[in-house]
Amino acid sequence: MNSAERVFAALQGQEPDRVPIIESVIDEKIRRALFPEAVETGAFSDAIGLDAVSAGLEFRRHRQEPESYYDEWGVFYRTSLEALSHPVRGPIASREDLKDYQPPDPEAPWRLGKLPELAARYKGSKAVILHHRAAFMWSAYLVGLDNLLLYFAADPDFAHELMDKVLEANIAMVRRAIRAGADLVILGDDYAHNHAPMMSPTHFREFILPRLQKMIVAIREEGAFCIKHSDGNLWLILDMIIDAGPHAINPLEPVAGMDIGRVKEQYGDRVCLIGNIDCGELLSHGSVEQVDHSVRRCLADAAMGGGFILSSSNSIHSSVNPENYLAMVRAGQKYGAYPLDPDLGCQGQ
């Protein structure tokens, strides 16, 4: 069984030969520290032994200065030492702005970025991942997160119109990416902080759920898999997220109360779980031994019976200890072969 087959089996709730290991974002600093001769995304995936390669779409930068820029969405960013920059403000502040606003062209020649090259190299041998979004976070970038949440209550028509415009463009981009070789799409809209969702379940049902469902239907129509990503504590809206029909959910943050064993017990027959080695404290400041133990515990709680993929609890950011990330991957490879040891979670205690 090769890497692609391994990932696809897990996404369908099956037991592959070994628990797959993927990561959608790995900071260049970490890649360079571990394999200086293999920093490029695909080369690093080969060197460390990941089962997937990933890419985002390309949105060109305009009016770029050393510490700031505008992207094609019209969003102003401050640059960051991390792989992802921080949005500061968006271009929409009024109904007139919304009426005139046009999202980026899905058919722009550069839109697919590095995806076609990765698909040409890895299609059929590793899973080819596109990470993108549906409607929520891009809409938040365009008007400001606080404003969008306020519009849910104070001006729902404005919120619906905005999110529909964003969703239409994103569905077109995702369809194009799948036709160019993406096997699965990670939808990266975050819905929650560490204690609860950002919006009420009522507002989630009205504004988020229908658009999430439309995106997932489009992904499935194109013959690809969908992973729904959201940080934070999702318990109040988790039923709705899974009802929307993704093949998998990640990253199930342990620091946000997302006990992966409990999620497995309640939802493991409906959706593949992906996660959830803590990248905040453990991978940054813990020991190799603690990482090894956490991987064994995670496998014991979530991988029995299949339908599980190992990853971090968010991303491999620049503060992660490179040796701890390597230890995480090696532990997954060492302990993740099926059939799993039923005493896996008790070893080393």
Question: What can you see in these coordinates?
Answer:
With 349 residues, the protein is of the alpha/beta class. It has one domain: TIM Barrel (Alpha-Beta Barrel), CATH 3.20.20.210. The chain is built from 14 helices and 11 strands. The mean pLDDT is 97.
**Number of helices in the DSSP assignment:** 14
Task: Write the CATH architecture name.
Answer: Alpha-Beta Barrel
Question: What portion of residues belong to β-strands?
Answer: 5-15%
**What is the alpha-carbon Rg in Å?**
20 Å
**Number of DSSP strands?**
11
- CATH class call: Alpha Beta
Approximate helicity band = 40-55%
Classify the fold: give the CATH topology: TIM Barrel
SS content category: alpha/beta
> Uncertain runs with pLDDT below 50, 5 residues or more?
none
Quick tags:
349 residues; alpha/beta; globular; TIM Barrel; 7-stranded parallel beta sheet; single chain; 4-stranded antiparallel beta sheet
Quick structural gist:
This protein is of the alpha/beta class and 349 residues long. The protein contains 14 helices and eleven strands. The protein has a single domain, classed as Alpha-Beta Barrel (TIM Barrel), CATH 3.20.20.210.
